[in-house]
């Protein structure tokens, strides 16, 4: 069975944790051990987010120079940084299984409307609105409210094509646990003359992972995060975890952009296009999610939405 695993949240940095190398390594180890627990009979492709890390690199960026590195280059840096640590921890956890990390350019449309309305949160949050305003002015950044805090937002266009797809296929076919499409991939545009160049944005890793899973003909897309699944009435006493749903049933519910929204949409796209299962749940539950006894499972074969407590609705 071929599984694409998209790591977010807990995988590398929990909400509020300082982005030190030590903390990220510890979290990467936990993720690697969880993945190793289910690895044995499967072909595995691992993707990951980079929101906190790319934002941090952007902040470190203008030390001693006036021309900051653009976001595509910083994205490539985070792929190296996170990919290295994750690869090493996977090697340690897996023993004899080969692991490789691949820089993955992803083509986006230069005229994607997302370039005019930044939505993707990166880097740390700021409690103080004066401090946030100063940073926005000094750096020429756009900041928006992420819950109670200010954060930088950048454009997040649709991933259209994975340039490294043939290489990923080769690696997976040769038995490598393949880490790729880190941070949603390194965003590039293609000029009419066929030349590629980097572009300033951060592609959503859930959308890239769905595209990758579809292109690879994966049997399952697992989006592992820091909640047990997708909830209705999230954050209220009435919250209920959805166990199984069809892509259509989820389309009628609303989920916030920048967090659960893209996951649900990525799950719907993959499930609809492939007639296979997309699952959203907690990293620690990866085995039960795969077995179908935890998380939220989205597939076209589901006719009634079911909830965690066995309740049914139409
Ligand atoms: P990741 O780094 O894994 O992509 P995100 O923060 O983007 O994590 O998305 C997961 C978060 O989505 C959860 O931690 C939760 O706070 C939030 N969330 C918002 N709405 C919902 C919902 N309806 N059900 C579950 N989680 C939700
Ligand atoms: Mg996310």
Give a quick summary of the entry.
The protein is α/β, with parallel strands linked by helices and 314 residues long. It is built from nine helices and 18 strands. β6 and β7 (149-154) form a beta hairpin.
Helix and strand arrangement:
Elements: E1 2-7, H1 21-39, E2 43-48, H2 51-60, H3 71-94, E3 99-101, E4 105-107, E5 120-126, H4 129-139, E6 142-146, E7 149-154, E8 161-162, H5 165-173, E9 177-179, E10 186-190, E11 196-198, H6 205-216, E12 220-225, E13 231-232, E14 240-245, H7 247-251, H8 260-274, E15 277-282, H9 286-291, E16 296-298, E17 305-307, E18 312-313
Parallel strand pairs: 1-2, 1-12, 2-9, 3-9, 4-10, 12-15, 14-16
Antiparallel strand pairs: 4-8, 5-7, 6-7, 10-11, 13-14, 14-17, 15-16, 17-18
Helix pairs in contact: 1-3, 2-3, 6-8
Give structural notes.
It is a single chain. Helix content is 35%, strand content 25%. The chain is of the alpha/beta class and 314 residues long. The strands form three sheets. Strands 1, 2, 3, 9, 12, 13, 14, 15, 16, 17 and 18 form an eleven-stranded mixed sheet that branches. A four-stranded mixed sheet has the order 8-4-10-11. Strands 5-7-6 form a three-stranded antiparallel sheet. The longest helix is centred in the N-terminal third of the chain and has 24 residues, at 71-94. The radius of gyration is 19 Å and the shape is globular. The model has no long low-confidence stretch (mean pLDDT 94). The structure holds adenosine-5'-diphosphate (ADP) and magnesium ion (MG). Magnesium ion (MG) is lined by residues 8, 49, 259. Magnesium ion (MG) binds next to loops.
């Amino acid at each position: 069975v071929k599984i694409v695993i998209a790591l977010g949240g807990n995988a590398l940095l929990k909400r509020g944790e300082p982005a030190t190398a030590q903390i990220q390594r510890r979290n990467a180890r936990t993720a690697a051990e969880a993945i190793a627990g289910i690895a044995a009979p499967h072909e595995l492709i691992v993707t990951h987010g980079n929101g906190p890390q790319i934002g941090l690199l952007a902040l470190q960026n203008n030390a001693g120079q006036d021309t900051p590195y653009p976001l595509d280059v910083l994205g490539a840096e985070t792929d190296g940084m996170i990919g290295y640590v994750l690869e090493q921890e996977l090697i340690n956890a897996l023993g004899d299984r080969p692991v490789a990390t691949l820089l993955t350019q992803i083509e986006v449309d230069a005229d994607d409307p997302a370039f005019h309305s930044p939505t993707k949160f990166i880097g740390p949050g700021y409690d103080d609105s004066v401090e946030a305003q100063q940073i926005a002015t000094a750096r020429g950044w756009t900041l928006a409210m992420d819950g109670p805090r200010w954060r930088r937002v950048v454009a997040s266009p649709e991933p259209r094509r994975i340039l490294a797809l043939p290489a990923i296929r080769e690696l997976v076919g040769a038995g490598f646990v393949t880490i790729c499409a880190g941070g949603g991939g390194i965003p590039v545009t293609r000029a009419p003359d066929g030349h590629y160049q980097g572009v300033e944005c951060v592609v959503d890793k859930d959308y890239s992972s769905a595209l990758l899973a579809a292109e690879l003909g994966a049997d399952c897309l697992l989006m592992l995060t820091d909640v047990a699944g997708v909830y209705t009435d999230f954050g209220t006493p009435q919250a209920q975890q959805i166990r199984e749903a069809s892509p259509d049933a989820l389309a009628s519910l609303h989920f916030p952009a920048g967090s659960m929204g893209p996951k649900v949409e990525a799950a719907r796209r993959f499930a609809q296009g492939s007639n296979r299962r997309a699952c959203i749940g907690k990293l620690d539950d990866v085995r039960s999610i795969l077995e179908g006894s935890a998380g939220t499972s989205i597939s076209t074969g589901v006719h009634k939405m079911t909830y965690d407590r066995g309740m049914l609705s139409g």
